[in-house]
Amino acid sequence: MKRSIYFLRLPMAALLIGLAFASCNKDVPPAVPINYPDNSGQTIAEIISGDTSYSFLTAALTRTGLIQSLAKTNSTFTFFAPKNDAFRYAGIPSADVVNALPLELLVPVLQYHLVPGQIYSSLNIQPVYPNVQLPTAFTFPAPNTSPLVRFSTFPSRRDNGAWVNNIPLVATDIKASNGIIHNPFTLVMPPSRSLWDRINSDTASNNNKSLAYLRAALIRADSGVAPTSFNSLIYTLSYPLVNATVFAPTDSAFQSLLTGAIAQALIAQSVPPQIAIQQAQYLASTPAVFQNPALFGALSAQTVKGILVYHVLLNRTFTNNIPSTATAIPTVLNTVYSQHPGIVATAAFYPPPYPPSVYAASVKGLANGTASKIYVNPTPEPYGTSDQHYYNGVLHKIDQVMLPQ
């Protein structure tokens, strides 16, 4: 197993600080100039109020008072406006249910659909990787960050459609005098947890698809590191302003890799193959393998950290934004070794009807050619595979551990 550890002599402090700050919320890229509608037309509030297919949304906006903002002619907005069918798909069957929702839930949801100060048509969004980032009207709650820092939403476009986050848009570019409207297939829910919260909570066995080994690997990678510094992967994946994508190998993926590696190491020490396999299966049978002192030489904190950061991208990547042709994408590992080719990602997309449960994508490590399939599901919890959205990034479960060269 020692052959696998030499590629990981990394200045990890610089690497993780780069993850935390190079990937924080950045300025929105300059929009392609468009002809702004004049104020002689209808405002967003007037368009929505006058269309019965928006009756659920009208009730929500009226109840929260946001309808008044959307009526202003001296302001501009991009509004991802869900129609009644979008509310129904999200489990809200009527305007009466909308009116019964607590305001502390309803207000953030509506604010997350609203981008103030921007008129962003679908043509402004180039169909290339990565996503555009648009700060919404929903601010991070104090005391976590400055109240001026806002949750972002991530629209994208491909040849066969447009999305906001992982939600397809069923209609785009409805112009108003004070902005533009796009209609999502379902509600675009604001994230409420960090990437680490997600990984830390998914430790129950569910057909070896949980992330208990990933959690244990992160703890091992942080051995001897101050828990509140950007040298810590756990701290970094907890930090609100990080903007990352994590390809998260499942328990069975880690078990398969570790069993093979441990067996090879034992065989190299003249242990009979059958006994070596049995011992390897036993050692790799629980996440405690990462805390086994007998394996610290091969599974050092530096080695484990190097493997893990190869699964992290420095931007938020939903499956619908992964290129349709095989493309090398830099990982956190590339921030130290710029010549490293990164991972290769490719996606295949299929046209409507929605929901987009048939979209598929794959990622693989260039070093060993392994590939992992991931599938889109707009409501992926609790054990979905892909496009799980958290306030500091996106998580995709994959079925193999990718090894850097």
Walk me through the structure:
The chain is of the alpha+beta class. The chain has 2 domains: 2-24 and 193-398, FAS1 domain (Roll); 44-184, FAS1 domain, CATH 2.30.180. The protein has helices at 12-22, 44-49, 55-64, 66-69, 84-89, 95-100, 103-112, 195-201, 212-221, 233-238, 251-268, 273-283, 301-309, and strands at residues 77-80, 114-116, 134-139, 150-153, 155-158, 161-164, 167-176, 179-184, 244-249, 312-313, 327-329, 343-348, 360-365, 371-375, 388-390, 393-398. Strands 2-1-8-7-6-5 form a 6-stranded mixed beta sheet. The protein is elongated and about 80 Å long. The protein starts with 11 loop residues before the first helix and ends in a 7-residue tail after the last strand.
Spatial sequence of strands, sheet with the most strands: 2-1-8-7-6-5
Question: Regarding CATH, which class of the largest domain?
Answer: Mainly Beta
Shape: elongated
Low-confidence stretches: 1-40, 349-360, 375-383
CATH superfamily caption of the largest domain: FAS1 domain
Helix share, percent: 25-40%
Along the chain, the helix and strand elements come as HHHHEHHHEEEEEEEHHHEHHHEEEEEEE
Named CATH architecture of the largest domain: Roll
Radius of gyration: 23 Å
Tally the structural domains: 2
Tell me the distance between the termini: 14 Å
Total strands: 16
Q: Main beta sheet: strand number and arrangement?
A: 6 strands, mixed
Q: Return the average pLDDT rounded to an integer.
A: 80
Figure out the total of helices: 13
By secondary-structure content and strand pairing, the structural class works out as: alpha+beta
CATH topology of the largest domain: FAS1 domain
Strand content: 15-25%
